Amino acid sequence: MTIPYSLRNKKVFVAGDRGMVGSAIVRRLASENCEIISASRAELDLRDAQRVKDFIVDRKPQAVFVAAAKVGGILANSTRPVDFLADNLEIELSIMRGAFAAEVEKLLFLGSTCIYPKFAPQPMPESALLTGPLEATNEWYAIAKIAGIKLCQAYREQYDCDYISAMPTNLYGPGDNYDLNSSHVLPALIAKAHAAKIANAPSLTVWGTGLPRREFLHADDCADALVFLMQHWSDNEHVNVGVGEDISISDLARLVARVVGYEGQITNDLSKPDGTPRKLVDVTRLTALGWTARIPLEQGIADAYADFKRRHAC
Ligand code: GFB
Fold it and tell me: The domain containing residue 233 runs over which residues?
């Protein structure tokens, strides 16, 4: 823990500002009185190292949030390995090289808790990194995110750059992806429960056994934690970001159905993978710094469902 880093009156580049987490960071930064720098995908391909470097050097941000990534749920991860490995490596390397060239004061890299071994102790402490084999359904994404942590550490070690990493647990919230082939479980269940309710369908289908357990963090809580870490964390070690509680997929499906108002049966499609059996992060480090999540899961699902209806439903 060092002297707090102030974002006030700074130029801040939020890479990935059109995504769920990036847009939540932009909302959160509204109260920090900083100037946000962003670029749409059409303006700037973040995999293009030269263009990214030119952009960052030209705009001269003082702080950078690396919230841009190729993301997706269990099916997308296991069927598009090149996209998840290569795109993410290119994005993080381009941004960090650009940030270094522009002498950015502080950079926060956003990873994922899938960096931890499939059978890591639960809750998973930061020290579990690289202690065992990864979960096969998302090892490509995990390897790219581990490389991002290592890049931050390498820049710190070789050039004394203040680059830090945060590992959020499974995220959801406004602006999520509701496409059933590429989404994560929570938005998928919202979309399925809504469709089943509208169609008066007798059942909705959950992938896998429903037994795996996951921890869910609202994107606004995540953004708040990331801004907090930007201000209060400066270390080689990464920091887990979570709520400290998990839920089985079956219980999550029942909770989503209740929020959406769907009363039919819940069935299982056992041809789909379960993935990692459990993914609960140890949030001791973050809690000790003074940050805890505020949005309860049921309230967060209601908020996400309201956003889904605004943007997708009739
Ligand atoms: O959220 P999810 O796709 O990814 O799936 P992971 C979590 C669990 O929910 C798995 C089950 O056990 C799925 O089988 N599930 C049930 C469903 N119904 C559905 C459904 O309709 N759609 C989806 N997508 N899942 C991801 C990684 O792992 O977690 C990423 O693939 C990333 O790399 C992300 O790290 C945070 O939690 O298994």
Answer: 11-176+215-244+280-295
